[in-house]
Amino acid sequence: MSKTISFIAHQDDDLLFMNPDIASDVQAGWEVWIVYLTAGEVAYKPGRTHWGMDYADLRIQGARAAYARAAKVANSWEYEPRTFAGRQVATNRLNGTNVHLVFTFIHAAEGADNGDLYRMLHNPSFVAKPIDGRPGYTKTQFQAMLKSIITTVNPDFIRTQSTIGHREIDSNGNPDHIDHISGAILTANAAVNNQNKTLLRRDEYQNYIIAEYEENVWGYWRDEKSAIWDQYWPKDPELQPWSWQNVMGRQYRPEGRIFFPGTPWVPPGDF
Q1: What backbone torsions phi and psi does residue 72 show, to the nearest 5 degrees?
Q2: pLDDT exceeding 90 applies to what percent of the chain?
Q3: Reduced to 3 states, what is the DSSP secondary structure of residue 116?
Q4: Distance CA 64, CA 78 (A)
Q5: Residue 264's beta-bridge partner residues?
Q6: 3-state helix, strand, coil in the chain (%, to 5)
Q7: What whole-number distance in Å separates Cα of residue 38 and Cα of residue 184?
């Protein structure tokens, strides 16, 4: 059986930016792991009405509903706490399938707050404390946990968001979300051997900027991407029926950002 792991910053990034690829894995009956690198709890700013653990839980419910639709089974999950590198991590498995969702509950970035992924990446002594009360992580500890997930599952390949999203500037002059980039770099750092060479194939995916590209997803898979999204967004009270409809027909990977086993990995020096 084929296996894939996708590492995601927030509970909707996979549905928006890595579908229909992930949905295709699920419907092929593969063992599919999705690791959410933040809680996605959205710290308060003007105009926001939901934040904190309650909001994170709503988004988790949305992710569960979405993956049940992707697998075309009942929305029924088992809580299966797993231990990776000595850390117990919240894991859910979709009953009757090989779909697993992993939640780290790391504090997300919003507005002027750079979030804990960025802080870990740039300050090795910083301790990121998950919002669900689990023990905190330094950068080394967090990357060790991610590496343990990778080596335990032993997937055929890994997906991350773009590690160069800060260079992918949209027409309004905006770069990608800081969590997307930070989480992708931390994962890429974990997915190498002690010579900094890629352990397993890793594919990067572009995010917000794809809304400006031409549509490249049509037919069955466009319909599936939309149907899966339609299970998520009603659970997220910060979204509307029209939210993110502009990416339903799009999925892109940055050119040259597939890292095959043995490829040297050097994090971008300008982020």
Answers
A1: 60, 45
A2: 93
A3: helix
A4: 11
A5: 197
A6: 35, 20, 45
A7: 12
The Cα 56–Cα 35 span in angstroms is: 14
Report the alpha-carbon distance of residue 146 to residue 135 in Å, rounded.
15
Q: 43 pLDDT band (50/70/90 cuts)?
A: low
Residue 85, C-beta contacts closer than 8 angstroms, at least 6 positions apart: 141, 144, 145, 147, 148
Structure tokens that stand for 76 in this block? 């029924």
**H-state helical runs in the chain:** 13-17, 21-27, 52-71, 115-122, 139-153, 178-190, 219-232
Q: Which two tokens stand for residue 218?
A: 């049509």
Q: How far apart are CA 26 and CA 159, in angstroms?
A: 14
Distance, in Å, from the CA atom of 213 to the CA atom of 153, rounded to the nearest integer, reads 34
CA distance 6 to 171: 28
Model pTM? 0.96
* Residue pair 34/102 in contact by the 8 Å Cβ criterion: yes
| Cα(249)–Cα(57) distance, integer angstroms | 28
